[in-house]
Design a protein that fits this description.
The chain is built from 3 helices and 12 strands. It has 226 residues and is an alpha+beta fold. The strands form 4 sheets. Strands 1, 4, 6, 9 and 10 form a 5-stranded mixed beta sheet that branches. A hairpin with a 4-residue loop joins strand 2 and strand 3.
C-alpha cells in the first residue's frame, strides 16, 4: 500500500514538472516574440524616419535649384531692360553706296562697353537738308521696333536710290539722330558724319528702312538685295 502511494505521488510530481516546463517554454517564446515585434517596429520606424528625412532633403534641394534658376532669369531680364538707347557718334557710323541695285547703306557699330538698343530707324539729314528722310515702312507703323546690340555689335539700314528723285545729288556728309523708345521718344544726337570713302548720291525723296541686325535683312526690306 505504501509503495503504491509512493508511485502515484511520483507520477503526479512528474506530471506537474512537465506542465511547469511547458508553461515556462511558452512564456519564453511569447517574450521572444514580443521582443522580435518591438525590434521590427523600431527598425520600421527608423527606416520611415530616414526616408522622410531624405525626401525632405530632396525637396529642399529642388527648391534651392528652382529658386536659383528664377533668380538668374530675372537678373538677365533686368539687364536687358536696363540697356539704354544707342548714341550716334562720328566714328560709330559709316555710309557707303552699292551700285546694283543702287542703294546707300548705313552701318552702325556699338563702340561703347555696354549693350544698347536702336529703335525704329535713323533720322538722317544729308548735306544742308532741313528735314530728315522719310521712313520706308511708313513712320508710325514702325513704333515698337528695336534691335539690341552687344558691345561691338552691328546694325544696318538701307536707302534705295534707284530713281533720279531718290538718287539726287552727291553728298559728302550727313547729320544723324537716333530715335528714342518709339517715334514719340526723345532723339539721341545729332552727330555729323563725313564720308571719307567718297560721296554718296541721295535725293530728298529717298526713304530709309528701320534698323536690322544683318545687312541682308536691311537690303531685303528696301528691295535692294543683289
Amino acid at each position: 500500500m505504501t509503495a503504491h502511494r509512493t508511485r502515484r505521488r511520483s507520477a503526479a510530481y512528474a506530471a506537474l514538472a512537465i506542465g511547469l516546463s511547458g508553461t515556462l517554454a511558452l512564456t519564453g517564446c511569447s517574450g521572444n516574440a514580443k521582443k522580435s515585434r518591438s525590434k521590427s517596429q523600431k527598425q520600421t520606424s527608423s527606416s520611415a524616419g530616414s526616408s522622410s528625412s531624405s525626401s525632405s532633403s530632396s525637396k529642399s534641394k529642388k527648391r534651392r535649384v528652382i529658386g536659383g534658376g528664377a533668380g538668374v532669369g530675372a537678373g538677365a531680364g533686368a539687364a536687358s531692360r536696363a540697356a539704354g538707347t544707342c548714341i550716334p557718334t562720328a566714328d560709330s557710323l559709316r555710309f557707303f553706296q552699292k551700285a546694283s541695285p543702287s542703294h546707300v547703306v548705313v552701318e552702325f557699330t556699338n563702340r561703347s562697353g555696354s549693350p544698347c538698343k536702336l529703335y525704329d530707324a535713323p533720322a538722317l539729314r544729308f548735306g544742308a537738308a532741313k528735314e530728315p528722310l522719310g521712313f520706308l515702312e511708313g513712320g508710325p507703323s514702325m513704333v515698337g521696333h528695336s534691335v539690341a546690340l552687344r558691345p561691338r555689335g552691328h546694325a544696318w539700314a538701307s536707302i534705295p536710290t534707284t530713281t533720279a528723285a531718290t538718287r539726287g545729288t552727291k553728298q559728302t556728309f550727313a547729320t544723324v539722330e537716333f530715335l528714342g523708345n518709339g517715334l514719340r521718344g526723345a532723339h539721341r544726337g545729332p552727330a555729323r558724319v563725313d564720308f571719307p570713302g567718297g560721296p554718296v548720291s541721295v535725293g530728298p525723296a529717298a526713304k530709309v528702312t528701320d534698323w536690322q541686325v544683318s545687312l541682308t535683312k536691311a537690303e531685303l526690306k528696301s528691295g535692294s538685295a543683289g
